[in-house]
Amino acid sequence: MTRWERLKYSVVQPDDGPPDKASDLSAEEVRAVIARADDKERAVGLIAAPVSAAVSFIVITALIDRNSVAGARHFTPASTYHELLLVLLGLGVLILVTALLRKRLFMALGMALYGIALFQLGWLGFAVPFVLAGAWYLVRSYRLQQELRRAEPAEVRPTGAKNGSRPRPSKRYTPPA
Fold this sequence. Notes:
Layout (H helix, E strand, L loop, with lengths): L2 H9 L15 H9 L3 H28 L11 H23 L3 H18 L2 H28 L26
Helix pairs in contact: 2-6, 3-4, 3-5, 3-6, 4-5, 5-6
C-alpha cells in the first residue's frame, strides 16, 4: 500500500460488508455502546480539554498583543478578547465534563465548536485537530446508529421507520358527511 492508503486506512476503516448485513452485536449491546463513549474516545476528550484551555490562553494573549495599539485601524478592546477567552474556556470545560460523563455526541459538538471558533479567529493550526476530532465522534455516532438499525428486528421498529413505508392512518379521522 502507498503511504496515503496506509494513512487513510489507519484513520478510516473501510466498510467492506454489504449495507444490509446483520450486526454481530444484539440491539441491546449496541444501545449500551451508543449510551457511553468507550475508553479511547474518553481519553481523547480528557486530553483535548486541557489542551484547549492552554490553546485558548495562547491565542487570546497573541490576539491582545497583536491588537495593542490604540490608534490601529481595526482596534478591538481587550475586554472583548477576555470575554472570548471565557467562551473558549467554557467550551473546554464542556469537553472535559462530557468526557468524564462519557457523552459522545456532546463531546463531539464541543470539540467541533471549539475548532470552528479557532478557525474564525484565523488559527488554522490549532483549529483543524479539534474539528477533525469532533467530526470523528460524529461519524462514529452515525455509524453506531446505523448498526443499531441493522441489529433491530423489523417488527420492533416504530411504524414509518422503513424507507418508503407510509405512516399509520390516524384513529381520529372523521369521514366527510
